[in-house]
Design a protein that fits this description.
The protein is an all-alpha fold. 69% of the residues lie in helices and 0% in strands.
């Protein structure tokens, strides 16, 4: 081992130098392990009122008392059920009474009478609109529109009805072929 050891400074005996360096290193490690800190890094002691947390304990005690009370109520209900031999009291004969039902009924009757009076006035009134004048005006507008349009309305229906009359006059042998051709042509035009 001393042959592989390479000291930092030139020495006459490598073996001795290796032992001395090793002893120095061991001595250093011993001093480091046995040394005490110069600065106190422990920190202050936690006060008792912070360690104990009385509020948390109080909340826990209250929660446990609520749970205990609920358990006692449930136990008493279970005892009553066992004592009743399984019979259940499910009869609820309550008569609902409202203190202001009469007043609300009177108000409802008043509103319904007023609504009926308004309805009678509306239905008895003659209309102020002259509907016949509007219809005559609309017919004039349609007539003008047909006069100025390039393709008048209803022209396509007239042409289709003429085509049906022409096809009805054709012989029955030609009718089947011509109808199949016209059906495909008609569907193409419509789409």
């Amino acid at each position: 081992m001393h042959r592989s050891y390479q000291p930092l400074k030139p020495v006459t005996n490598r073996f001795l130098q290796h032992r001395w360096d090793h002893n120095d290193y061991d001595n250093h490690r011993r001093k480091v392990s046995s040394s005490l800190p110069v600065v106190d890094t422990k920190g202050s002691k936690t006060p008792a009122h912070i360690q104990l947390k009385l509020k948390k304990q109080q909340l826990q005690d209250e929660r446990l008392s609520i749970i205990d009370r609920d358990n006692r109520l449930l136990a008493s209900k279970l005892a009553a059920i066992v004592g009743s031999q399984g019979l259940v009291d499910h009869r609820n004969h309550y008569h609902l009474r409202s203190l202001n039902a009469d007043k609300r009924r009177e108000e409802l009757m008043l509103v319904s009478r007023q609504n009926q009076a308004i309805h009678q006035r509306i239905t008895a009134r003659q209309s102020e609109y002259r509907r016949q004048l509007w219809l005559d005006d609309w017919e004039r507008v349609e007539h003008r529109r047909d006069d100025i349009s390039r393709y008048p309305r209803g022209l396509a229906e007239k042409q289709r009805s003429r085509m049906k009359v022409k096809f009805a006059a054709v012989d029955s042998s030609e009718h089947s072929t011509s109808c199949s051709n016209t059906d495909t042509d008609g569907t193409n035009r419509e789409t």
